[in-house]
Amino acid sequence: MVNQIRTLSPSTNKVIFEHPGTSLDEARAIAQASENAFQSYKQLSLADRKAIMVKALNIVDANKETLANELTAQMGRPIAYCTKEIDTMRKRADYLLSIADDSLKNLPGQAESGFRRFLKKEPLGVTLISTAWNTPLLGERLVSYFHEAGLPTNVLQLLHVGSLDVLDEIVKLPQIKLVSFTGSTAGGLRLREATARRVVPVNLELGGNDPAYVRPDADIAYVAAQIVDGAVFNSGQSCCSIERVYVHADIYDNFITEVQKELSTLVELLLVYLKITSRRTNKSSYKLGDPTDKATTTGPVISKQALKNIQSHIDDALSKGAIDATPENTTFTSLPAEGNYIAPKLLTNVTHDMVTMREETFGPVIPVMKVSSDEEAVALMNDSDYGLTASVWTKDIKAGEALIEKIDAGTVYINRCDYPSPVWFLYLSVVVRGSFHTDRIDIGPGLDWMEELGSWMYVGTARV
């Protein structure tokens, strides 16, 4: 396998960045340099480390427009939302910094005369973070910002790994004490196999086929707007996107009508990126097109292969009896000549025999299935190999809370979707559940994210 990083513009499929892949020998040297840097960096006080982080974040803020334009160029996200992504990152980072002292302080042990016990948090060591495909070029820029802020040399390094074979070997390096991977289920399972003979934590953030259930008492217009946004934002390219919708038979027809209105007419959009940002309150329509146009709400998907996969899921559903209920929208039918563009698609009359209801589509597809009861909805929501997030939409909060107790998902919402707060970032589940199915492997229930990057040391001292 060729070890090279190539970034193609989703808008044109032209190469905008190339970089030789990091070789295994280079990775060995980087890992050792990281280990050496760790030995001194761990002696730095928490206050000093936090100060470096704040400086780096301020540099990011000062370069927000540059980063936003590069996000649009590299992954096709509409420019209207890219600065908000950076704002979101800052909010999360500030929150984590604000709780760092309390989260990392020593825990007292059982009192005993003449003896002192406590648990001390120790840094774990070199961590390999394998991120998603989105922005390899931005990685270089962010590393430079942290170095500019005073982060010591080799504490943060970037590897361009363009070969899974090389990555398989890198994760086996003895200096690496934790592996964190974000990507496909297939990639995560491969990485887990590669680390099987090492006693190190492996955190996998993989795919989803996230369900939503609309109860008969729901505010149909509001829910339709939110679910369309949850399925279509960023062209459906979020692991927490809504990928299948179950609607009670009593309101099914009205719900479909409202979804069609959302996709075709001037509506109050609530487009949300990573659940905290990008809320639009101006009147505008869903517009598919050039992501550099500030009026665009839906840009291209990341690659030709992604486009092919999404279309195959649509074709499979239609061949098995699904109905294309997508309303007319001129931007949906006049796609740009270049790039990986696909219009949002509303599918009705879907069943669990269809691939889009069983596997991750990762595109702007809204398959809607009619159900007769809460019980049927929950059974269908749980009939999945995934369990990342799920949502219930209802005016009866108590009924919603009762339902989410029956849903097999690590994160569950009532009357919202795809919206991790800073607390979600700290704790891996809004409702603490543990691991479900294939989306989260080796992540325990409600583990503190900071604690995953360290280990507890028991200290016992006798007074003599």
Automatic annotation (TrEMBL):
Q: Which domain of life is it from?
A: Eukaryota
Keyword list (alphabetical) reads: Oxidoreductase
Please state every residue range assigned to the domain named Aldehyde dehydrogenase.
Answer: 135-266, 284-417
Gene3D superfamilies, per the entry:
Aldehyde Dehydrogenase, Chain A, domain 1, Aldehyde Dehydrogenase, Chain A, domain 2
Q: What EC class does the entry list? A: oxidoreductase
Catalytic site positions: E205
- Which spans of this chain does the record mark as coiled coil? none
Q: Which InterPro entries match?
A: Ald_DH/histidinol_DH, Ald_DH_C, Ald_DH_CS_GLU, Ald_DH_N, Aldehyde_DH_dom
KW Transmembrane helix (keyword) present:
no
User: Which protein family is named in the record?
Assistant: Belongs to the aldehyde dehydrogenase family.
The protein depicted here goes by the name: aldehyde dehydrogenase (NAD(+))
Naturally occurring in which organism (per UniProt): Aspergillus oryzae (Yellow koji mold)
